[in-house]
Amino acid sequence: MQRRQFLGSLAAASLFPRSAVAQTAPKRLIAATHRQQILPAPYPDTEMWGFEGTFPGPMLRARQGDRLKASVENALPQPTAVHWHGLRLDNAMDGVPGLTQAPIAVGQSFDYDFALPDAGTYWYHSHAKSMEQVERGLYGPLIIDETDAPDVDQDITLVVDDIRIEQDGTVASFDNFHDLSHAGRIGNLWLANGQIDPAYPLKRGDRVRIRLISAANARVFTLGMPGFAGWIVALDGMPLKDPQPMPEEIVLAPAQRVDLIVDVTSDEDEAFLITYERDGGYAIAHFPLSGATTSARSGKVVLPPNPDFPIDLANARTATLLVEGGAMGGMRAARVDGEELDARTLAGRGLFWALNGIAGRPKNPLLDLSLGESARIGMANNTAFPHAMHLHGMHFAEVLPDGSLGPLRDTLLLDPQETREIAFQAHNPGDWLFHCHMLAHHQGGMGTWIRVSA
Ligand code: C2O
Ligand code: CU
Predict the structure, then answer these.
(1) Is the peptide bond before 56 cis (omega within 30 degrees of 0)?
(2) How far is the CA of 304 from the centre of ligand 2 (A)?
């Protein structure tokens, strides 16, 4: 039943003419608990936390150049705040409790209202106790349409996730030191748009835009789309100047997005979105195929570019970020509020990770930049785990070993013992969080921030 209702609402949403979807009046987003069938029947349903009584929350869709206005009402048992992941927005609307706003107290509301300079695939999620609140369901897709969107037969958004759920339907306990000090909260059930292996019917030969968004707490997905061929056209919302052929394996770290424009090439009855695990591939969504498309679209598609903020590598301010901690990491001590604490005392406070020797958000920013200045941050992962490093408010490019710049991203996967460098132009004033999007790691101390002074 749940599946049918959800598919019903998706279909209805895509029938709206674009202009009717543009956000003019504020969109109401009540954050509250509700019950939803997550496990297959006859397993019991689950108390989820969601926006507007759904998990995932409703798709928010607007057009590039419009404003998004959303009034978030907190009917949860805890304070909350909403972050608009990947948007280069006004700092006061960024949704980070204690940095950009006070948390929205229980029973209170907060009006978000910001301009949308960029088109692309984004998402919104709770940024308060996020390891728990995102896992419980407080997230949704946020799509900003190009004024001149490419012509496709279907535009399908797939928010992939893994949830850790008990057989009695309850979301597993968050009281777990192992998650905080190891890989993070890895789930035991894969979901796409909140469902187990949902179906999206297509015709053979269809050209489809697929927007993959990972809302996983910590799992790094390796995804494949057998039965399709085409290109990666955007990463983390930002169009690629030169779209890349879709690889067999697409790595999607927590919070990352990949936009594909692909054609159905299979002549089987079904095509799949597969997650590749150690013991083989599993479908997390499938596409029943019928007939043959009546439209013959072909050729590589390049999305129109978003506003560009060129990076001046030669004159950039530099910083380094040493990532330490976690099990098998050998971190002996770190500073908290200027006080040096040993690993045992840190663990007692739920802190297991440090950036440049500091556990938890420091008093001073990693970098204090002037507006328009460029910056480079060299990151060294001296731990046994991968980390998905996310910068708020501005996209960065990786500085590749040959000195050239990679594609723009807002979240970069840093594998164990890896060293990588990112660079960006400080074009957006404010205080911007820079943290690991493995949400247990962030809770366990892996977060710093960057100031851009106007
Ligand atoms: Cu997806 Cu700090 O956020
Ligand atoms: Cu991490």
Answers:
(1) yes
(2) 33
Which of 252, 278, 451, 286 lies closest to 365, judged by CA?
451
In tens, the pLDDT along 280-334 reads 999 999 999 998 877 777 789 999 999 999 999 999 999 999 999 999 998 999 9
| Type of residue at 63 | R
Question: Can you list the domains of the chain with their CATH numbers?
Answer: 18-292 (2.60.40.420), 317-453 (2.60.40.420)
* DSSP bridge partners of 72: 29, 110
Ligand 1 pocket, residue 255 CB under 6 Å: yes
Taking 70 as the pLDDT cut, the residues of the chain under it are 1-25
Which ligand has its closest atom nearest to the C-alpha of 388?
2
Give per-residue burial for 300-324: e unless 16+ CB within 10 Å, then b. ebebeebeebebeeeebeebebebb
Ligand 1 geometric centre to CA of 410 (Å): 9
Q: How far is CA 181 from the centre of its chain?
A: 22
Cα–Cα distance measured from residue 261 to residue 302, given in angstroms and rounded to the nearest whole number: 10
pLDDT computed for residue 292 by the predictor: 87
Q: State the amino acid at position 393 in one-letter form.
A: G
